[in-house]
């Protein structure tokens, strides 16, 4: 018996943004789908507009599984996770153990397909590919902040500013293109989106 997929199905039980009041609940399953779509789009932008040569399908899969280890670790709130260097390094170690644990829930013949998704240090071209996934993760967080602010929940105002700065600090043209050409549509209603 291999419990990998049954464990993946539990992503829907892990709530995000635990330290903040949420108008709209979000779990890591929903978040991971959004990150996968955003990462795929950013990779296409990279290839078509920025001279990249990325495997867009692989990057979408990396986005889909990027937080899967949280099935074991839970969603560590950012202020705790990045409180200091010691906690950050220890949490990376815990995440690494969780990633290896997840891979070991698979039969041997499947592990080689999942290792690059869970263990970025083993993947070719990992730096650019994982930067794209990290950018998509931050964009997803920014979109969440915008959604919460639209409901009148000011709890996310500071988080939005922090995430916008983090995206700017990444200094990636793919992000700039996405923010200029795609992000404004998130402020539209369904009727407005259909007419756009």
What is this entry, summarized?
This protein has about 200 residues and is mainly alpha-helical. The chain contains eleven helices and no strands.
Task: Describe the overall structure.
The chain has eleven helices and no strands. It is mostly helical and 196 residues long. It is globular.
- Write the H/E string, N to C: HHHHHHHHHHH
How many strands appear in the DSSP assignment?
0
Shape: globular
Give the strand content.
under 5%
Given as residue ranges, the uncertain stretches (5+ residues, pLDDT < 50) are none
Structural class: mainly alpha
Mean pLDDT equals: 91
Largest sheet: none
Compute the separation of the termini in Å: 49 Å
**DSSP summary: helix tally:** 11
Using the CA coordinates, give the radius of gyration: 17 Å
Q: What proportion of the residues is helical, as a percent range?
A: 55-70%
């Amino acid at each position: 018996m291999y419990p990998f997929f049954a464990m993946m199905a539990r992503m829907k039980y892990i709530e995000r943004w635990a330290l903040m009041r949420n108008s709209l609940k979000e779990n890591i399953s929903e978040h991971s789908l959004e990150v996968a779509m955003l990462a795929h789009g950013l990779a296409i932008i990279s290839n078509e507009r920025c001279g990249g040569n990325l495997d867009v399908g692989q990057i979408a899969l990396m986005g889909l599984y990027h937080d899967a280890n949280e099935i074991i670790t839970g969603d560590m709130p950012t202020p705790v996770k990045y409180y200091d260097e010691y906690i950050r390094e220890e949490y990376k170690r815990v995440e690494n153990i969780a990633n290896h644990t997840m891979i070991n829930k698979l039969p041997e013949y499947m592990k080689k397909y999942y290792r690059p998704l869970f263990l970025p240090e083993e993947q070719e071209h990992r730096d650019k590919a994982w930067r794209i996934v990290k950018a998509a993760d931050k964009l997803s967080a920014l979109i969440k902040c915008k959604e919460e602010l639209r409901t009148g929940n000011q709890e996310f105002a500071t988080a939005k500013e922090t995430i916008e700065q983090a995206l700017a600090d990444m200094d990636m043209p793919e992000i700039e293109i996405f923010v200029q050409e795609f992000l404004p549509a998130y402020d539209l209603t369904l009727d407005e989106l259909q007419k756009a």
